[in-house]
Amino acid sequence: MPERTIEFGKYGARGIKGSEAVARQLDALAGFVATPVTSRRGLLARLHYLTRSDHARAAAREAGLTVTDRTLKAWLEGRRSPTKKNLETIDTAYRAVRRRNVARYLLARLNARGGTRVELHPLNQSQVIRTRQRVVEFRSLNIRHWDRIVEAWVAGDAQALDDAWTDQIVDLGSEWGQYEFVTNVGFAA
After folding, report:
1. What whole-number distance in Å separates Cα of residue 122 and Cα of residue 142?
2. Number of H-type helices and E-type strands within the chain
3. pLDDT at position 7, please?
4. Please, what is the angle between helix 147-155 and helix 158-169, to 10°?
5. Given pLDDT bands bounded at 50, 70 and 90, which one contains residue 4?
6. Are 90 and 43 in contact (CB under 8 A)?
7. What's the Cα-to-Cα distance from 131 to each of 9, 60, 135, 146, 148, rounded to whole Å?
8. C-alpha 53 chain-centroid distance
9. Beta partners for 120?
10. What is the pLDDT of residue 1?
11. Which of 9, 18, 8 is nearest to 176 (CA)?
């Protein structure tokens, strides 16, 4: 059984951690606002999402947006603009609240009908010398239980997400270590 990769990229291989690729795909499925927070439209979309109800406001405060209601109102009306630090806080709070709001829906879709088929695209070895390259093929597997993965994604806990992802890819058998780093992970919900 292979152990975790310690010196990834030592010979020129390129890729990202599989858990990071899963987080990116979950983010894509969450449907975040595409307009950047630095534009007026992107800022207003995020602020409306975070202030549309008392529940949303409480979740935003819990996620780190701790400005007064008066400041929020001034931002929404365009009388004042948030600082760069506040823009980052707004975007971070928006992503955290959006993840929390869509998690139950995504989890139900991913676990439905016995799980979700996941495609693993192997790491890029184009920069590795021929004698050091290994045969790593495109693989797919069915993940039946997404609970820990989605929970770690919502919490923003990279280590817990990596552990949960690794627990799933061991189903590939003795080759699972070859898929700890990948170019892409694809699935739909």
Report:
1. 17
2. 7, 4
3. 66
4. 160
5. low
6. yes
7. 15, 53, 11, 38, 39
8. 25
9. 139, 185
10. 37
11. 18
Which residues are bridge partners to 139 per DSSP? Answer: 120
SS3 of residue 144 by DSSP: coil
Band of residue 5 on the pLDDT scale cut at 50, 70, 90: low
Question: Edge-to-edge strands of the sheet including 139-143?
Answer: 16-17, 181-186, 116-122, 139-143
Residue bearing tokens 């007026």 = 40
Residue 57, CA distances (Å) to 20, 68, 86 in order: 29, 11, 16
Residue type, 72: L
- Spatial CA neighbour of 159 closest among 19, 30, 24: 19
pLDDT tens for 135-175 read 788 889 999 999 999 999 999 999 999 999 999 998 887 77
What is the Cα–Cα distance from 18 to 32, expressed in whole angstroms? 21
90 touches 120 (CB < 8 A) = no
- Asked whether the predicted pLDDT for residue 26 surpasses 70, the reply is yes
Nearest to 123 by CA among 189, 187, 175: 175
Measured distance CA(59)–CA(47) in Å, rounded: 12
181: enclosing H helix or E strand: strand 181-186
pTM (predicted TM-score): 0.84
